[in-house]
Known about the structure:
Layout: E1 2-9, E2 20-26, H1 41-48, H2 64-71, H3 75-89, E3 97-101, E4 107-113, H4 124-140, H5 148-161, H6 165-176, E5 181-183, E6 189-192, E7 199-202, E8 205-206, H7 211-218, H8 220-229, E9 237-240, H9 243-253, E10 257-261, E11 271-274, H10 277-291, E12 296-300, E13 305-312, E14 315-323, E15 326-328, H11 335-343, E16 348-349, E17 356-357, H12 363-371, E18 385-387, E19 399-402, H13 409-422, E20 426-433, E21 458-464, H14 470-473, H15 483-491, E22 502-506, H16 511-524, E23 529-533, E24 536-539, E25 542-545, H17 552-560, E26 566-570, H18 573-579, E27 586-591, H19 607-619, E28 621-630, H20 634-637, H21 643-646, E29 651-656, H22 662-669, E30 673-678, E31 681-686, E32 689-695, H23 708-723, H24 728-736, H25 740-743, E33 749-754, E34 763-769, H26 774-787, E35 793-796, H27 804-815, E36 820-824, H28 836-848, E37 853-857, H29 859-871, E38 876-879, H30 883-892, E39 896-897, H31 900-904
Parallel strand pairs: 16-17, 22-26, 22-27, 23-26, 27-28, 28-29, 29-30, 34-38, 35-36, 35-38, 36-37
Antiparallel strand pairs: 1-2, 2-4, 3-4, 5-6, 6-7, 7-8, 9-12, 10-11, 10-12, 13-14, 13-20, 14-19, 15-18, 20-21, 23-24, 24-25, 30-31, 31-32, 33-34, 33-39
Helix pairs in contact: 3-4, 4-5, 6-15, 9-10, 16-23, 16-24, 26-27, 27-28, 29-30
Amino acid sequence: MRLEYVRHLGGPNIFSTKPVSLARIELDELTCQETTDQPGFAAELLELLPGLRDHHCAAGQPGGFVGAMSRGTYFGHVTEHVALELSGLAGRDVHLGRTMWAGADGRYDVMMECPTDEPEDSAVPSELCRLAMTVVTDLVAQRTPDVTAHLEAIGRTAERERLGPSTVAIAEAARRRDIPVRRVGGLSMLRLGYGCHRRLVNAAMTEQTSAIGVDIAGDKMLAKKLMARAGIAVPDGVVAKSEVEAIRAADELSGPVVIKPRNGNHGRCVTVGVQTPAELRQAYRRAAAGSGSCEVIVETYVPGKDYRVLVVDGRVAAAAELRPPCVTGDGDHTVIELIDLLNADPRRGQGHSRPLTRITVDDAMLAHIAAAGFQPGTVPTTGQQVTLRRNGNLSTGGTSKDVTDQVHAEVTELCRRAAAVTGLDICGIDLRLEDIGAPLFPPSLAGSGRSSGGRQAAAVIELNACPGLRMHLAPADGTGRAVAEAIVDRLYPAGALSRIPIVSVTGTNGKTTTVRMIAHVLRQAGLRTGMSCTDGVFIGGRGVLEADASGPRSAEMVLDDTTVEAAVLETARGGILRRGLGYDKADVAVITNISADHLGEDGIDDLHDLVEVKALVAEELRSGGSLVLNAADHPAAAIADRPAVRKNAPVLRYFSMTPGNAIIERHKRSGGICYEASDGQVIETAGGLQRLIMNITELPGAFDGRATHVVANALAAIAACRAAGIAVKDIREALRTFTPGAVNPGRGNVYAVAAGPAASAAAGPVLVDYGHNAAALQATGQMVASVWAGEPVAAITLPGDRRDDLVAESAEAVASWFGTVVVYEDEDRRGRAPGEMRELIAGAMRKIRPEVHVTFADGPAGALRTAVEMAAGGPVLFLYEKLDPALAALEALDATPWPEEDLMGDLAGEPIEVDLPVELIKDAGQDDTSPLPAAEPFAANLREPDEPG
Length: 949
């Protein structure tokens, strides 16, 4: 067996709304073999991994997988279940899996669910697949697999990569409020929200955390001085740079002291209750090692209990008493054995990955129990408690007890003031006092150590800038507190927005133009818009990335920009299949049309498969969002009836170029919202009332409606913008300035090019377009024939990564409209041999139109020059693969943009009078004061709408 690759689909995908991995495996020698062909295999596998007996498989109940093996199943399927079982043994709580045939015998795609916030570059999924394949092949070869070491390594990696309890709690709290959450790489950093509402969190530190406050808290002596100046009681302390200085400082302070690193954290390398010179020397060396320098702090030991108080946004969110780790004797086990039993608690893990930390046996712990008369081999009597450390820090194995409801008002005020010293928005206050529920001495007596009248002394030991939340989330005793919610509420107060409007556009043809139209309108309406499409990423109309940016990473780039107020995202098939969506749900989803293209790639073999992929955009829609569908395109229109679409109760908005469309008429009768091209106008129908949006003659590049695909793109864009609550006048004004050459480069651009150098040479039109499938080329050919007189000539190339039959269909579409064709191959042949595409295209053309005149040329410049010369002033269609070489070819022929007025049509700007069979008809330049019957999703979140509807 071979593992070809593993992909990570981090966003919602065709398998699940959760992240999944997709592994391509080749069975090689096991191709077409089943489990029943290997006697004893199933029994040996179940003996090795008995948990497989509980796997449901397709049966929907335990034992389903065992039954599948007994009947005979392929080894790709076995590998999936073995990998899932190993995943569980490695500590990953995932269950979903699926094995799919991948286009050839012995080739399978194995999908497995991934933990929600596992890093996308994690090696764990691929290592699980490799180990599962090893198990299968070893058993087939009658070898006994040894999975222990490899599985333990995978488990350690998974544990190391897992978000800590604090970050997990913040992520879960945000998701409960429907705030988008995305992890940054393998860090404890989260991106919350989208666009201008995006916030960053790193464990319990936020982008609003004061950098100066962090520095203050990190320098324990500076924090001590500032708190003392604010009248807050702190233990006396001295910085020592050597063992001698530490001993001298302890003598000055008198009594037991605490020695700790000046810049340490998590209670590491802290020694409490130091008294003798020998203890001082050892404690100094330990603290200096933890500090990374010779500087340590020697401070007065404050009697009492250890408490941690969490202050968020100036308010106490939780409080916990911290208790040192201890074991309780049973009369049978030694101290070290009792520690091992304590560490077996599944709540304990390495570092901060679990609610509790495993207890480490080190010199400090051994010295502490020795002072109490115990050794590691001592067997405590039944019920006898052995305290393992003097301090109760969770990082050294301590536990916590929630005391939030017991905090006295004077202690609350003390903690609030201590946090204010640093200016930290989230601060952990380490206190030492006898009872957190009792009142305090006045500041002048706080350090006296005396107690009278129920009052007590208290001291702030430290301030923590990125406090752990474990002790508050899951205390060993008491109630867990909603501290993560308090942090999220600090970033997003009640009523605050966390999302920006998202319009997601997919389909086979027209995606890029529709996306550009929508973004153009939103900018006209005053929104700073981010857009991703096949030409790049654009923020506020300016390009920030030049690339094919129709995938999830480009969408994330838009959504991470903190200046963006609305996002318009082209969502292509390839990105969905390879990475999933780059967002969790959209406000408006647009499906322009679905026709045969890219078949034979990524397991998509027919139109039904393609619909399954494109439909994801409609399915991942917010509840009550708007779904814009092409009523004239059956595959697209049928998506409205999918259960996964209907569950979100979307507002359906159909559009069609054809008056009288059956779906449109039925939708109208039910009061639905529709957009049609009728008698030279774009009409919106909603609740039985009609509204004029604009005249088609006002739309650049539409040629009085003869460019039907341009009008269809505009209808889709108008429907999306109306769903966004954009006013009619803003839509009309924006689309009137949507000149293809200026704002839609490479799509429907028309240039004037002279047929020769002579002054008398006629300048003919050259239509530059990116048609790459039969449906698009049929529409383009029809447009050329209806707009310009004369015999048209085409200069074309087609993408080499398409299946031969699809290339042939595209070539036939060209030949059906063009009697003369110049064929050239793109520089990137996409795996084709030199000349292969030219012959394939020419052959297909001649098959459907034997008299077609086909000429070959080298590159786009040569093809365009030849086509222009052959057209002799007639129209030329120029198809390209890369825009820059196409523009260079035009420049070489001194091409100039076609006059704008000719793109608009003969009646541009003049209203066309028609009789509409309804009450309400208004001029497109006026506001309509009557509300639409369906709620508009998001404009009100950002600006005052110009229209109540």
